[in-house]
Specification:
Elements (H helix, E strand, L loop, with lengths): L12 H4 L6 E4 L19 H14 L4 E4 L14 H13 L4 E5 L4 H10 L4 E8 L9 H13 L2 E7 L4 H15 L6 E6 H4 L5
Parallel strand pairs: 1-2, 2-3, 3-4, 4-5, 5-6
Helix pairs in contact: 2-3
């Protein structure tokens, strides 16, 4: 859900969530009325995020994926606002969000500390590359996957494709990753037009 205010989603929430297993709430895109036109990076107030989660919880029992996507990872949250990001993650854990997306771009030590206090929430350790240079069969992706596996309950890697064959590389990497002993659940997708195939 990419609304600035969850109240806007409520009239069509049943339609939006038909057949889905969970709802991803893009917290970095939430905006209180006075800041609704803020276009640059932005830190939504904790009090506002609390109200938005409460509104969503009042209308659905689906699990919530709490995502604070930073600017360098394709979102609207300031890259330097790590303290604020973890304050929001703590809020998500306290409010019972089932999944919390935590980017590998944040401090590894801080992620480890958060893992100790996140309660029953599952951490999706994520890494998104928007450069178009990422190679699914390259060493960087393997390194990020190993790091994410050690930090999270679920691994998420997203790449930007330049050619359709990048989807085949993704498929081969994902098959190999999922076949490894003690493999974590793995979300692997590509972006851009040709990347749509990887989401099917």
């Amino acid at each position: 859900l990419t609304y600035p205010d969850m109240g806007l989603a409520l009239p069509t929430l049943d339609e939006l969530t038909a057949g889905v297993d969970a709802i991803e709430l893009r917290v970095d895109l939430l905006r209180p009325p006075q800041d609704v036109n803020a276009k640059s990076t932005y830190v939504p107030p904790t009090s506002y995020v609390t109200k938005q989660l409460a509104v969503l919880r009042s209308k659905t029992s689906l699990p919530i994926v709490f995502t604070v996507r930073s600017a360098s990872q394709g979102g609207a949250f300031p890259d330097g606002a790590e303290k604020e990001a973890f304050a929001l993650f703590d809020l998500a854990a306290r409010m019972g969000c089932e999944y919390i997306d935590v980017e590998l771009s944040w401090s590894i030590e801080r992620i480890r500390e958060f893992r100790k206090r996140c309660g029953r929430a599952q951490i999706i350790a994520s890494w998104l590359d928007w450069s178009g240079h990422m190679k699914w069969d390259g060493p960087v992706v393997a390194e990020k996957h190993n790091l994410a596996s050690g930090l999270g309950d679920i691994v998420k890697i997203v790449g930007k494709v330049l050619t359709f064959s990048d989807n085949l590389d993704l498929h081969r990497f994902a098959e190999k990753a999922r076949a490894a002993p003690n493999a974590k659940p793995f979300i692997a997708i590509n972006t851009a037009y040709d990347g749509q195939f990887s989401r099917a």
